[in-house]
Amino acid sequence: MKKLLALLMITAAMAACGKKDEAPATSSAESAMQNAAESAKAAASDAAAAAGHAADAAKAAANSAASDVSAAADKAKEDADNAMAKAKEATKDAVNASADKAKDTVNK
Protein backbone atom coordinates (compact mmCIF):
# COMPACT_ATOMS: atom_id res chain seq x y z
CA MET A 1 0.00 0.00 0.00
CA LYS A 2 2.88 2.35 0.79
CA LYS A 3 4.49 1.57 -2.56
CA LEU A 4 1.21 2.26 -4.33
CA LEU A 5 0.83 5.59 -2.53
CA ALA A 6 4.40 6.58 -3.40
CA LEU A 7 3.85 5.59 -7.02
CA LEU A 8 0.65 7.62 -7.16
CA MET A 9 2.37 10.63 -5.65
CA ILE A 10 5.27 10.38 -8.12
CA THR A 11 2.86 9.96 -11.04
CA ALA A 12 0.82 12.95 -9.94
CA ALA A 13 3.99 15.02 -9.47
CA MET A 14 5.27 14.04 -12.91
CA ALA A 15 1.92 14.90 -14.46
CA ALA A 16 1.92 18.25 -12.70
CA CYS A 17 5.50 18.97 -13.78
CA GLY A 18 4.75 17.88 -17.32
CA LYS A 19 2.15 20.62 -17.71
CA LYS A 20 3.56 23.92 -18.80
CA ASP A 21 1.33 26.19 -16.80
CA GLU A 22 2.50 29.66 -15.99
CA ALA A 23 1.40 29.28 -12.41
CA PRO A 24 4.01 29.63 -9.70
CA ALA A 25 5.99 26.52 -8.66
CA THR A 26 4.27 26.33 -5.28
CA SER A 27 0.90 26.07 -7.05
CA SER A 28 2.14 23.11 -9.12
CA ALA A 29 3.48 21.40 -6.01
CA GLU A 30 0.21 21.97 -4.18
CA SER A 31 -1.73 20.68 -7.16
CA ALA A 32 0.49 17.60 -7.33
CA MET A 33 -0.02 16.94 -3.64
CA GLN A 34 -3.77 17.44 -4.02
CA ASN A 35 -3.85 15.00 -6.96
CA ALA A 36 -1.78 12.50 -5.03
CA ALA A 37 -4.07 12.83 -2.02
CA GLU A 38 -7.16 12.32 -4.17
CA SER A 39 -5.59 9.30 -5.85
CA ALA A 40 -4.64 7.84 -2.48
CA LYS A 41 -8.15 8.47 -1.19
CA ALA A 42 -9.64 6.71 -4.23
CA ALA A 43 -7.25 3.76 -3.80
CA ALA A 44 -8.13 3.50 -0.11
CA SER A 45 -11.83 3.62 -0.95
CA ASP A 46 -11.40 0.86 -3.54
CA ALA A 47 -9.43 -1.24 -1.06
CA ALA A 48 -12.12 -0.75 1.58
CA ALA A 49 -14.83 -1.75 -0.90
CA ALA A 50 -12.87 -4.86 -1.89
CA ALA A 51 -12.41 -5.78 1.77
CA GLY A 52 -16.13 -5.29 2.34
CA HIS A 53 -16.97 -7.56 -0.57
CA ALA A 54 -14.54 -10.18 0.70
CA ALA A 55 -16.12 -10.00 4.16
CA ASP A 56 -19.59 -10.39 2.64
CA ALA A 57 -18.44 -13.40 0.64
CA ALA A 58 -16.88 -14.99 3.73
CA LYS A 59 -20.07 -14.37 5.70
CA ALA A 60 -22.20 -15.92 2.95
CA ALA A 61 -19.90 -18.96 2.82
CA ALA A 62 -20.08 -19.35 6.60
CA ASN A 63 -23.87 -19.08 6.56
CA SER A 64 -24.04 -21.66 3.77
CA ALA A 65 -21.78 -24.05 5.70
CA ALA A 66 -23.85 -23.58 8.86
CA SER A 67 -27.01 -24.23 6.89
CA ASP A 68 -25.52 -27.42 5.43
CA VAL A 69 -24.50 -28.64 8.91
CA SER A 70 -27.96 -27.85 10.27
CA ALA A 71 -29.62 -29.74 7.41
CA ALA A 72 -27.33 -32.72 8.00
CA ALA A 73 -28.17 -32.71 11.71
CA ASP A 74 -31.89 -32.58 10.96
CA LYS A 75 -31.53 -35.50 8.53
CA ALA A 76 -29.57 -37.52 11.10
CA LYS A 77 -32.25 -36.86 13.73
CA GLU A 78 -34.97 -37.95 11.31
CA ASP A 79 -33.05 -41.12 10.44
CA ALA A 80 -32.54 -41.90 14.13
CA ASP A 81 -36.25 -41.37 14.84
CA ASN A 82 -37.16 -43.71 11.98
CA ALA A 83 -34.72 -46.35 13.21
CA MET A 84 -36.16 -46.08 16.74
CA ALA A 85 -39.72 -46.49 15.43
CA LYS A 86 -38.70 -49.57 13.44
CA ALA A 87 -36.94 -51.05 16.47
CA LYS A 88 -40.03 -50.50 18.62
CA GLU A 89 -42.22 -52.15 15.98
CA ALA A 90 -39.82 -55.10 15.69
CA THR A 91 -39.75 -55.50 19.48
CA LYS A 92 -43.54 -55.39 19.64
CA ASP A 93 -43.80 -58.01 16.87
CA ALA A 94 -41.26 -60.26 18.65
CA VAL A 95 -43.15 -60.00 21.96
CA ASN A 96 -46.46 -60.78 20.24
CA ALA A 97 -44.93 -63.75 18.41
CA SER A 98 -43.49 -65.09 21.68
CA ALA A 99 -46.80 -64.65 23.42
CA ASP A 100 -48.59 -66.47 20.61
CA LYS A 101 -46.11 -69.37 20.80
CA ALA A 102 -46.50 -69.55 24.56
CA LYS A 103 -50.29 -69.55 24.19
CA ASP A 104 -50.11 -72.30 21.58
CA THR A 105 -47.81 -74.38 23.80
CA VAL A 106 -50.20 -74.04 26.76
CA ASN A 107 -53.21 -74.94 24.64
CA LYS A 108 -51.62 -78.17 23.37
Can you lay out the helices and strands and say which pair or pack?
Layout (H helix, E strand, L loop, with lengths): L1 H17 L6 H83 L1
For the structure shown, list the relevant keywords.
93% helix; 108 residues; single chain
Question: Could you please describe the fold and organization of this structure?
Answer:
The protein has 108 residues and is an all-alpha fold. Helices cover 93% and strands 0% of the residues. It has two helices and no strands. The chain has helices at residues 2-18, 25-107. α1 (2-18) packs antiparallel against α2. The longest helix has 83 residues, at 25-107. The protein starts with a helix and ends with a helix. The model has no long low-confidence stretch (mean pLDDT 78).
Radius of gyration (Å) = 38 Å
Poorly predicted residue ranges: none
Order of helices and strands: HH
Assign a percent range to the helix content: over 70%
Look at the structure and give the mean pLDDT.
78
- Structure classification: mainly alpha
User: Overall 3D geometry?
Assistant: rod-shaped
Task: Report the major sheet.
Answer: none
Tally the helices: 2
Number of strands: 0
Percentage of residues in strands: under 5%
Assembly type = single chain
The CA-CA distance between the termini, in Å, is 97 Å
